[in-house]
């Protein structure tokens, strides 16, 4: 699929690793309420991926100081539409504070596959684990 498809929503996702543990949280809202996810969200009109990541991480976990590395993008299709997910490895340079979650959980690599992930993330859990290598 074309990256510039008007019908495809662009989403940035931060794989936030600290001390070889991944930051995850349980969604409090639909869609996928109760499932685990990594912080991120939709890119706004005329917003760069980098700016969207900075905005989303601040809005969700009050993270404004971090280093990032682009990892890859994948296309997904689910009941909510077409999405291009842009993954970044994020190294926080300050403490995180949940703003849209009850709590943040730091999970070691061996426990990542045991969580109740949003279904479209399931095929990519090995990638999540390898992102910290």
Topology of helices and strands:
Elements: E1 8-18, E2 21-26, E3 36-37, E4 40-42, H1 49-61, E5 66-78, E6 81-92, E7 105-108, H2 125-130
Parallel strand pairs: 1-6
Antiparallel strand pairs: 1-2, 1-4, 2-3, 2-7, 5-6
Describe, in plain words, how this protein is organized in 3D.
With 133 residues, this protein is mainly beta. The protein has a single domain (8-130), classed as Nucleoside Triphosphate Pyrophosphohydrolase, CATH 3.90.79.10. The chain is 14% helix and 38% strand. It is built from two helices and seven strands, in the order E-E-E-E-H-E-E-E-H. The protein has helices spanning 49-61, 125-130, and strands at 8-18, 21-26, 36-37, 40-42, 66-78, 81-92, 105-108. Strands 1, 2, 3, 4, 5, 6 and 7 form a seven-stranded mixed sheet that branches. The model has no long low-confidence stretch (mean pLDDT 93).
- Biggest sheet overview: 7 strands, mixed
| Radius of gyration over all CA atoms, rounded | 14 Å
Number of helices: 2
Report the strand count.
Answer: 7
How much β-strand is present in the residues? Answer: 35-45%
Helix content: 10-25%
The termini sit apart by 29 Å
**CATH fold-type name:** Nucleoside Triphosphate Pyrophosphohydrolase
Along the chain, the helix and strand elements come as: EEEEHEEEH
CATH class reads Alpha Beta
Secondary structure category: mainly beta
Mean pLDDT reading:
93
Shape category: globular
CATH superfamily: Nucleoside Triphosphate Pyrophosphohydrolase
Summed up, the domain count is 1
CATH architecture: Alpha-Beta Complex
Low-confidence stretches: none
